[in-house]
Amino acid sequence: MVGLKEELLKSIWHAFTALDLDRSGKVLSHNLCTVLNVPHDPVALEEHFRDDDEGPVSNQGYMPYLNKFILEKVQGNFDKVEFNRMCWTLCAKKNLSRSPLLISDEDAFKVWVIFNFLSEDKYPLIIVPEEIEYLLKKLTEAMGAGWQQEQFDHYKIALNTSREGLSAWELIDLIGSGQFSKGMDRQTVSMAINEVFNELILDVLKQGYMLKKGHKRKNWTERWFVLKPNIISYYVSEDLKDKKGDIILDGNCCVEALPDKDGKKCLFLIKCLDKSFEISASDKKKKQEWIQAIQTTVNLLRAGSPPPHKEARQKRKELRQKLLAEQEELERQMKELQTANENKQKELETVRKQLEAAAARAAEEEKKRLQTQVELQDRFSLELEREKMVRQKMEEQVAQKSSELEQYLQRVRELEEMYKQLQEALEDEKQARQDEETVRKLQARLLEEESAKRAELEKWHLQQQQTIQMTEAEKQELENQRMIKEQALQVAMQQLEQLELERKEALEQYEEVKKKLETAANNTKSWKDKVAHHEGLIRLIEPGSKNPHLITNWGPAAFTEAELEQRQKSWKGKKTTSE
Predict the structure, then answer these.
(1) pTM of the predicted model, to two decimals?
(2) Which parts of the sequence belong to the PH domain (predicted)?
């Protein structure tokens, strides 16, 4: 009843402020009692007002009388539309704009009633920008147009700079001006206002034509159904003039889909305690929408919740109150912060002066530090120059040593090339016969000694590479060692030349033996020809060695293993004697 009383007071406030009432308020009281179905008591009205009346809100004023003798007796069995229309009639003529509007007087009346529903619970009544945005969005959605958020944001900024919200008449002017319904005709705007009015004021959750099956004749008749929070009413047509019946909804009701039958499609059933109603929607989408809407209504009845739009309005109001409380708390905190900030400013001023004094001292110290730094930089620059000169000399010495090393490596490569040539010469002598074996072994010994000398040279080469990486203090000693090794290399070169002479002598001996072999082979051939001529063809069988021959990398050896062991002992003896 408290919410109903607040809604009634808003409409009455418009009528009360519009009329030039005398202290009794007889005209308004009589009309209110008539539309609210409250017994009118003129005696109590005359007795309430006395000569000491101090105004409409005093103890003997009109508002206390209205609360005590009229509003407290309201039971809710009255027509809200007629009540609002009576209050509208009393206030519209005085307050409604005389400029032409794009909406009719009936549409203006509906906007006025919607304003009373959405306005704040404080006087004078205004509607805040958040509720204006909600209403305009509902109207735009009902018109099937797109919402222009940017346009409303500009309007909201201009509104907030001047005042907190709009009055009912300013809201009517805003909607009637067509500022947020450009491109829409009067009929579309009127239908949108009527749809929003039915939802917010008349609590119409859904409405539309459907077929209903009769309980007695079992025939199907088209009816206009109107779903409200606790009832479904059905009429002959959408003008709502001829009402045919009601379906009372409560928490025990349920709705369920039915399969198609008797040539009817999109069927569903509403079950109540005393009756069940079979209904056919126009299509599957409408069927699903009606089932969902009715089921949602039943669920709200079971939970004892208000209609969705009223619950949403209450949530928006609570949110605004919460934001207002937070804003007030924020303002209080800002004042406290401002006071604390002023105190901090004073402290900071004191600290600033101390910092300035400290900065002056720091500047003097910085000046001394910079002077010291310049002196150190000059000293470091001189040392750096000396280091560069020393480094340059070391690089020149390293370059010189590298050049000498390269020359030494070139001589080693030449020796290696000579070694390869010796190997090629020796490979040509591997197929000599038994008389040539002595010469070949001699050459093998020479090659072995040459390989030992080459390994020794490579060892000296590696040692010279390591000496390059030593420090400057060791370079002089390494230079002396290199000279000694170069002398040793010269001795090795002389020995290598001696080996070359010995190899040449061996080659000469090999040539002599080869000539002797050729002479012997010619003599043998002449002897074989004579024997074949005089005694017939015979095959000469040459005796072979009974001992097994050795196999070398070049084929069968020209001597036995025993002979090889004897020659190895002879070589070792000669080598020991030479050392």
Answers:
(1) 0.55
(2) 203-299
